[in-house]
């Protein structure tokens, strides 16, 4: 029996790269998704696994919450590598092999981005330890917080990362219009991508600031005068990151930890969050150190010295 754990973007990508694989159903911890249809498949509560024969059970975890889900499945008596595995790794492998032709520009562009990122890492981060996931990067960055101040996330979307962060900090503010990208980003992500019809469910110590950054951030800073202890930039665009740095330039100081969700390792990364941060550093004359990066993704964390 083949099951996919994760009825969200990861599950969608898994289906795309395993279009000829017979899948029985999806499971997800989100009660709002259970007993509903996801791309033609029924979504069930993970507790259904307790009722199934383990001998024929095969579960692909198509979620960024791999560590948490792994522990959950281990409690069910399942064995990693036999009953379940990291389906995100399958996605990456299949993405690189499904369309292996001389006309595959998407693959060529990604390989060029990989090569450029590898050169960047060899030049600037040769002695920096990497992480295996975006949440591992967040965790290491949070552990590096030493400054008293406000904690902010820009680009909340479905709330997965801000809820993860909020479990480890006292209070965090999340900025998002929830209307999607304000402009075209890269191929496959046009204006309006990531639009949500309703606000996500967030933890009690999360406060959402709804609206475009340039409209909400100035008013927020009038009310809160503290420096920034932690900033998670997950807004994809150069223009959005520039707005963030333009407004927070006087709040970013020695000890501020910043995590970028799309810093490098995708086509055009040099013109995105990386460019906005480089411009900010050049103008501010601040110094920083690299904390870690996701060796199989796009995330990077730094700390201002």
Describe the structure.
This protein has two domains: 2-93, NAD(P)-binding Rossmann-like Domain (Rossmann fold, 3-Layer(aba) Sandwich); 107-304, 3-Layer(aba) Sandwich (Rossmann fold), CATH 3.40.50. It has nine helices and 13 strands. The strands form two sheets. A seven-stranded mixed sheet has the order 9-8-7-10-11-13-12, sandwiched between helices. A six-stranded mixed sheet has the order 3-4-2-1-5-6. The model has no long low-confidence stretch (mean pLDDT 92). The N and C termini lie far apart (52 Å). α1 packs across α3 and α7 packs parallel to α8. Helices cover 32% and strands 18% of the residues. It is of the alpha/beta class. The protein is globular, with a radius of gyration of 20 Å. It comes from Lysinibacillus antri. GO terms for molecular function: methyltransferase activity. Pfam families: Methyltransf_24.
List keywords for this structure.
alpha/beta, 305 residues, Rossmann fold, seven-stranded mixed β-sheet, single chain, 2 domains
Present the secondary structure layout.
Elements: E1 2-5, H1 9-17, E2 25-27, E3 37-38, E4 41-44, E5 58-61, H2 66-75, E6 84-86, H3 87-95, H4 105-124, H5 134-143, E7 150-154, H6 160-166, E8 172-176, E9 206-210, H7 213-223, E10 228-233, H8 238-248, E11 257-260, H9 273-284, E12 288-293, E13 300-304
Parallel strand pairs: 1-2, 1-5, 2-4, 5-6, 7-8, 7-10, 8-9, 10-11
Antiparallel strand pairs: 3-4, 11-13, 12-13
How many runs of DSSP E, i.e. beta strands?
Answer: 13
What is the rounded distance between the termini? 52 Å
Q: What is the C-level CATH assignment of the largest domain?
A: Alpha Beta
**What's the number of domains?**
2
Kindly report the spatial arrangement of strands forming the biggest sheet: 9-8-7-10-11-13-12
Low-confidence stretches: none
Apparent shape: globular
Q: Considering the protein shown, what is the CATH homologous superfamily of the largest domain?
A: Vaccinia Virus protein VP39
Radius of gyration, in angstroms, nearest whole number: 20 Å
List the secondary-structure elements in sequence, H or E. Answer: EHEEEEHEHHHEHEEHEHEHEE
State which percent range the strand residues make up: 15-25%
Q: In the CATH classification, which architecture of the largest domain applies?
A: 3-Layer(aba) Sandwich
The CATH topology of the largest domain is what?
Rossmann fold
Total helix count?
Answer: 9
For the biggest sheet, the summary is: 7 strands, mixed
Backbone structural class: alpha/beta
Mean pLDDT: 92
Helix content: 25-40%
């Amino acid at each position: 029996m083949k099951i996919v754990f994760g009825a969200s973007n990861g599950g969608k990508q898994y289906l795309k790269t395993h279009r000829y694989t017979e899948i029985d159903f999806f499971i997800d911890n989100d009660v709002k998704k259970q007993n509903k249809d996801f791309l033609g498949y029924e979504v069930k509560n993970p507790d259904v696994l307790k009722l199934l024969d383990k001998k024929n059970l095969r579960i692909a975890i198509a979620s960024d919450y791999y560590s948490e889900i792994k522990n959950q499945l281990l409690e069910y008596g399942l064995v990693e590598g036999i009953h379940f595995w990291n389906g995100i790794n399958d996605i990456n492998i299949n993405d690189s092999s499904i369309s292996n032709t001389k006309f595959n520009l998407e693959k060529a562009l990604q390989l060029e981005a990989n090569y450029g990122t590898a050169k960047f890492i060899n030049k600037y981060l040769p002695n920096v330890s990497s992480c295996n996931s975006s949440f591992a990067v967040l965790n290491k960055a949070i552990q590096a917080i030493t400054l008293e101040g406000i904690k902010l996330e820009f680009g909340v979307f479905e709330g997965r990362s801000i809820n993860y962060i909020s479990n480890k900090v006292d209070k965090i503010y999340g900025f998002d219009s929830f209307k999607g990208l304000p402009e075209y980003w890269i191929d496959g992500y046009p204006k309006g991508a990531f639009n949500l019809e309703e606000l996500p469910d967030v933890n009690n110590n999360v406060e959402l600031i709804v609206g475009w950054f340039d409209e909400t951030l100035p008013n927020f800073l009038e009310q809160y005068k503290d420096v920034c202890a932690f900033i998670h930039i997950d807004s994809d665009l150069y223009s959005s990151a520039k707005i963030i740095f333009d407004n927070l330039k006087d709040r970013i100081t020695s000890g501020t930890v910043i995590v970028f969700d799309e810093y490098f390792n995708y086509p055009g990364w040099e013109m995105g969050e990386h460019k906005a941060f480089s411009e900010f550093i050049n103008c501010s004359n601040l110094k920083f150190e690299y904390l870690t990066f996701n060796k199989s993704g796009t995330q990077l964390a730094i700390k201002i010295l």
